[in-house]
Design a protein that fits this description.
Structural class of chain B: alpha/beta
Order of helices and strands of chain B: EEEHEEHEHHHHEHEHEEHHEEH
Oligomer: heterodimer
Strand order of the largest sheet of chain A: 6-7-8-3-9-10-12-11
Largest interface: A-B, 41 and 42 residues
Distance between the termini of chain A: 28 Å
Number of helices of chain B: 11
Helix content of chain A: 25-40%
CATH class of chain B: Alpha Beta
Shape of chain B: globular
Strand content of chain A: 15-25%
Radius of gyration of chain B: 21 Å
Number of strands of chain A: 12
Largest sheet of chain A: 8 strands, mixed
Strand content of chain B: 15-25%
Number of strands of chain B: 12
Radius of gyration of chain A: 21 Å
CATH superfamily of chain B: P-loop containing nucleotide triphosphate hydrolases
Shape of chain A: globular
CATH topology of chain B: Rossmann fold
Order of helices and strands of chain A: EEEHEEHEHHHHHEHEHEEHHEE
CATH architecture of chain B: 3-Layer(aba) Sandwich
Helix content of chain B: 25-40%
Structural class of chain A: alpha/beta
Strand order of the largest sheet of chain B: 6-7-8-3-9-10-12-11
Chain lengths: 324, 340
């Protein structure tokens, strides 16, 4: 398999501006993403899991250069995109797309479903206007927006939550991208709608040969959809492994804690959780060494000294813990 | 009569919201009981009426929402007929409620201490400040929050801590019933798990009865003794948690359980439910789930099935389990807690 997208030592710091006199005081910044490296193979679903503030959404945006990295590299099909010109970047936008959590804030209330899905084709000057309509209707049927010619003229407020998310998906897929960043696409949806969207994403991936970066805080969903999963904590990847490896033999104490905390829809499976102490610290002044050490049940003095490197502990299974 | 003491009883409750295009029948003919010390999970998707039902128990419905029929009995007294003075006492001293987003429930201009003192003073104006503060400190200890947080404002607290403060405020006057409406939806997984543990501890400590309103089947499976499933304003199924998950009777409950990814299972495909919930201004005739039901029969589209006991302490509103006249006499017992 060829590598489609690769991130190397990606760093994103957001400067904090507190007041006018800020230049007098030492510079503060939020280390949203801290030297993150991974590769996404063509045709796979890579999950990016973590709690809020772990930097997973920022990483997703960096991969598409929706925000500029502070340092580090992103390669798309072997080509560095951090140095792309405006025109090259525009071409990339047709090939690498993103869908967000809340479909209602992603859709303009003044654009009909048809207009919204056609819009990317107009921006990228693809196809003739009559071809466009045909393609849009065709894709609408594919994502389950049917009858398509009826829904074509509807506006977002006339749609159900599930339909809106399908419109957002169709809009992202109309330019026939090969890479899709899905940033918590089902977090706002109802339980029964979630399953439908997940299943649709799986089917679209097969039919259109898509590659996904699936960003989620829900490991149960990641287990259902992803081939490999990277777990992030405070801007760093702490563990990266295949789905079976990660759920079968998790290594990093944080991954273990996350897995134990997931509520299981089965009262017969109530478990002892052994939760980590405290809460995720601020990314402004993260703890030294391993970011997780203040909460880690296995912490040793050494853990606060240096950042443990993300090392391969078995084939394809990476973990950033000195215990491994 | 049920063997356990019933603390709250909702009888044939209907709630409607008259709006310009008609009347939204948000809750229709819902009955259930809550036993003393029991945790009941009220489960359903958005718009099923679970939050409306929760609000009505404290008589907190906002106009145009109105109870059109039915009774809500707290220890035998109808909440809906209480005068405003008794109602204010009921809220907080007998029944408390916490909501999804603690930040919108807390006043950004008041410190944690201020929130607690205000609540105490409101319910017990005679209590002296030092006595009140002592009670607050004790509460913070129970919640696992450091005392220095008393002087802080809501924005200085993390999401998990805010929700713990909320539950502390809800319990400071020692109520019997806590209604928690999606209490963990805005929280992260690990914080959520911590909150769940805290809730279990508080439940024992304060001998609480809990109504947990949520769409999260994982959460109810962890907390609730009994589960009531709502769909489109109607009660579809009521049984113990173990029963509901092991032997769901109603096709909607089955669909709901099957479509949730379970981290302990290796699911190749999720079973999905087609369609979406009906318009509550003009709900379908018969069973409201009939248009989406995989096992629909002609009678389902004609007549509304009532909630009836079809297995011991396991009630469902579904025609699949036969004509209801035969068992109608046991009907009211069906929605009561298990008697073992």
């Amino acid at each position: 398999m060829a590598t489609l997208v690769r991130a190397r030592d990606l760093v994103k710091e957001f400067p904090l501006r507190r007041s006018l006199f800020d230049f007098l005081s030492p510079k503060n910044s939020v280390h949203a993403v801290d030297k993150v490296s991974f590769a996404i193979e063509e045709g796979e679903v890579l999950g990016l899991a973590g709690e809020s503030g772990s930097g997973k959404s920022t990483t997703g945006r960096l991969l598409l250069r929706l925000i500029e990295p502070t340092s580090g590299h992103v390669e798309y099909r072997g080509r560095e995109i951090t140095s792309y010109s405006r025109r090259e970047l525009e071409q990339l936008r047709a090939k690498a797309q993103i869908v967000f959590q809340d479909p209602n804030s992603s859709l303009s209330p003044r654009m009909s479903v048809g207009q919204a899905i056609t819009h990317p084709l107009q921006i990228h000057h693809l196809y003739t206007p009559s071809e466009r309509k045909e393609r849009v209707l065709d894709l609408m049927e594919k994502v389950g927006l049917s009858p398509a010619d009826f829904l074509y003229r509807k506006y977002p407020h006339q749609l159900s939550g599930g339909q809106s998310q399908r419109v957002v998906l169709a809009r992202a897929l109309i330019t026939r991208p090969d890479f899709l960043v899905a940033d918590e696409p089902i977090a706002m949806a109802d339980v029964s709608v979630r399953a439908l969207i997940l299943q649709l994403m799986r089917q679209l991936k097969r039919d259109m040969g898509l590659t996904y970066l699936f960003i989620t805080h829900d490991l149960a969903t990641a287990k259902y959809l992803c081939d490999r999963i990277a777990v992030m904590y405070l801007g760093r990847i702490v563990e990266l492994a295949s789905r079976d490896e990660l759920f079968g033999s998790p290594h990093h104490p944080y991954t273990k804690a996350l897995l134990a905390a997931v509520p299981v829809p089965d009262p017969a499976a109530r478990r002892d959780k052994n939760l980590p102490k405290g809460e995720i610290p601020s990314a402004i002044n993260p703890p030294a060494g391993c970011h997780f050490h203040p909460r880690c049940p296995y912490a040793m003095p050494k853990c606060s000294e240096a950042r443990p490197p993300l090392r391969e502990i078995s084939a394809g299974h990476l973990s950033a813990c000195i215990l491994d | 009569m049920p063997a356990e003491k019933t603390i709250l009883e909702v009888q044939h409750l209907s709630i409607a919201y008259p709006i310009s295009i008609g009347v939204v029948r948000a809750v229709e003919d819902v009955s259930f009981t809550l036993a003393d010390g029991e945790a009941l999970g009220l489960v359903g998707e958005s718009g099923c009426g679970k939050s409306t039902l929760g609000l009505s128990i404290l008589n907190l419905l906002r106009p145009p929402g109105k109870v059109t029929e039915g009774k809500i009995l707290y220890r035998g007294k109808d909440v809906l007929t209480l005068d405003s003075h008794s109602l204010l006492k009921l809220r907080g001293q007998n029944i408390s409620m916490i909501f999804q987003n603690p930040l919108t429930s807390l006043n950004p201009l008041i410190t944690v201490e201020g929130h607690f003192l205000e609540t105490i003073h409101y319910h017990d104006p005679a209590m002296e400040k030092h006595a009140a503060l002592a009670a607050v400190r004790k509460m913070l200890q129970t919640l696992g929050i450091e005392e220095k947080r008393l002087k802080e404002y809501p924005h200085q607290l993390s999401g998990g801590m805010r929700q713990r403060i909320m539950i502390g405020l809800a319990l400071i006057m020692n109520p019997d019933i806590l209604i928690a409406d999606e209490p963990t939806t805005s929280l992260d997984v690990i914080v959520e798990a911590g909150f769940t543990e805290l809730l279990a501890a508080l439940r024992k400590l304060y001998k609480l009865s809990i109504i947990l309103i949520t769409h999260n089947l994982g959460l109810v499976a962890e907390i609730a003794d009994r589960i009531a499933v709502m769909y489109a304003g109607r009660m579809m199924e009521v049984a113990s948690s173990a029963e509901i998950f092991a032997r769901p009777l109603h096709p909607y409950t089955q669909g709901l359980i099957d479509c949730v990814p379970n981290i302990l299972l290796d699911q190749k495909e999720l079973v999905t439910m087609q369609g979406s919930p009906p318009d509550l201004v003009d709900p379908p005739k018969g069973c409201r789930f009939a248009p989406r039901c995989p096992k629909v029969m002609p009678i389902c589209r004609e007549e509304t099935p009532l909630l009836r006991e079809h297995a011991p302490a396991h009630a469902a509103a579904c025609w699949l389990y036969g004509a209801q006249d035969a068992v109608a006499s046991q009907g009211d017992a069906a929605a009561s807690p298990r008697k073992d």
